[in-house]
Amino acid sequence: MSSNAGENNYTDSMKGIITDRFSFEYFITNDFLYVDKTMYAYELVESDKNFFFVSRPRRFGKSLFCSTLHSIFDGRKDLFKGLYIAEETDYSFEKYPVIHLDFSKMSLLSEQAALNALQKRILGAAEDNGISIERDSPSEMLDDLIMKATRATGKQVVIIIDEFDSPFTSKISWKPELIEYIRELFNEFYKSIKADSAYIRFFFMTGCVRLSNLSIFSAMNNLYDISMDRRFAGAFGYTEKELEDNFGEGMDEYLEANPGIYGSKEVFIGRIRDYYDGYRFSPRSDIKVYNPVSIGRFFDRLECKFDNYWEKTGVSTMAVGLARRCNLVSLLSENSSLLLPSFSSFDISLISEAKLSRSSVLALLYYAGYLTIADSDDDGVELGFPNMEIRSSFIQSLSLLYADNGDDAAGMIIQGAKAARRGDAEKMIDSLNEFCRQSSGQIIREKLENPYHLIAHMFFVACGCRVTAEDSTSRGRIDLTVEKDKHLYIMELKIDGTADEAMKQIKDRDYAGKYIGYARKSGIDIHLIGISFSSKERKVSEWKEEVLSPGSC
């Protein structure tokens, strides 16, 4: 996996960081920062099994890992100097013919386009191996390539397939006239792999969605799925140790150049952890990882700016749109339970809005990277948002889907974020009201429970605030706790009540008491805000504020 960001961004203490290339050879020969994952590759290539599959969300280093495996089986020992597999093992780096297929960005506008796209990739792999094959059905082309490569080298072949699910998660492939054709096309393709398994030294396939043994994969019953295997929980993304080992010097350099911002390295790391850590991929392992692209872009030129980098690499609007089937208030406020069989029974070839159940939608949100394993037992898992970046990205996308005018809603979010950062409650509530006007119609038509709580929650998270709903205290639950920079907002929301009633509840139950010590230590202001929404006017009808400064707390 890489630690990544723009090219040729060197610092005194760190190698260059890159996020938009996925070639292992390119990383090594151009001396970019590569976080060593070859210990996981070694365990796979030396296993007594040889057919593997792994699912991870997009931008978690799957393509770079595939490229790393390609270089290993291409016998490129020269590229692995200083890395685990070359320095800590006796791996021989024997050369094999490698068939490397990338199924991302396939054209699926028609049956012919889908056929041509698959044929093109097989022909490209044949050319890479110096082998000539005829254009025919993809299954026959692949069979021909495997046989010719085996005869030419006297060795079994290695097959690497990256982003296997891309043809099925593209909305183009949802067209009724294409679904059955694409399903059958790939079903025949994978059948040929199973039929030629005696000629395959190693098979590795990745995707965002975990495959099932249904439909197109009925023939691929020899795959060993390592997606939730505890031994590979840290194989994709950066562990806490990898973060500190590879970026620790950069942190020191940044803190030295910007004294006083975070107080200590521990505080700085804690903030990074809140924003970008928290992905857990095995119910039997406590290992959590950071998204490598987010970390790379965060450290780009050592600017260390907290932002939603993952979202900027491409949001899964399909997953966000399907999430509207769930109880959004619960989804945003608490973890969601899911039985483990819901993951393995998910059939990628049936992915359409009309056919996905609630459990399938939750599984899809997990595969898309919006939810992760928060807790687990023998029967199932609790899914929740991994970190602030993903929660914010999800809700920003959800907010724009609900808004009557996405551009106007985005403007209100920007204005609300600026006001929250300044401690300007009046401008913040004005922006909330405009956002409410933009989105309340659709939300209320869907008859969601507590629609105004949902709107307020969505708005403040979309503003990049740290939001806790139903925040527990010794004397009750705060409706919303909202934090942005040096301001903490404690909010009680009433529907068709009064702002006085809301403020009285905040004070009578001493909601601020939970945060007094934190406010003094951090030098932040506490804003007590009582809000009343009018269900008739669909907006905040009145509100009141009292501010507790650190000195008065």
List keywords for this structure.
42% helix, disordered N terminus, globular, 5-stranded mixed sheet, Rossmann fold, alpha/beta, single chain
Count of the separate structural domains: 4
Find the CATH topology of the largest domain.
Answer: Rossmann fold
Q: Major sheet: order of its strands? A: 2-3-4-1-5
Report the average pLDDT across residues.
87
In brief:
This protein is an alpha/beta fold and 553 residues long. It has 21 helices and 13 strands.
Task: Write a structural description.
Mean pLDDT is 87; it is low at 1-12. The protein has a 5-stranded parallel sheet with strand order 2-3-4-1-5. Strands 9-10-11-12-13 form a 5-stranded mixed sheet, sandwiched between helices. It has a 3-stranded antiparallel sheet with strand order 6-8-7. It has helices at 24-29, 38-45, 62-73, 84-87, 111-128, 138-153, 166-169, 176-195, 240-257, 265-276, 292-298, 317-322, 328-333, 341-344, 358-368, 388-402, 406-422, 425-445, 451-462, 499-508, 516-522, and strands at 51-55, 98-102, 157-162, 200-207, 224-225, 336-339, 372-376, 380-384, 466-473, 476-484, 487-495, 525-534, 539-548. It has 21 helices and 13 strands. Strand 7 (372-376) and strand 8 form a beta hairpin. The protein folds into 4 domains: 38-232, 3-Layer(aba) Sandwich (Rossmann fold); 240-308, no CATH class; 315-388, no CATH class; 422-548, 3-Layer(aba) Sandwich (Trna Endonuclease, Chain: A, domain 1), CATH 3.40.1350.10. The longest helix is centred in the last third of the chain and has 21 residues, at 425-445. Helix 16 crosses helix 17 (406-422). It is globular and about 85 Å long. The protein has 553 residues and is of the alpha/beta class.
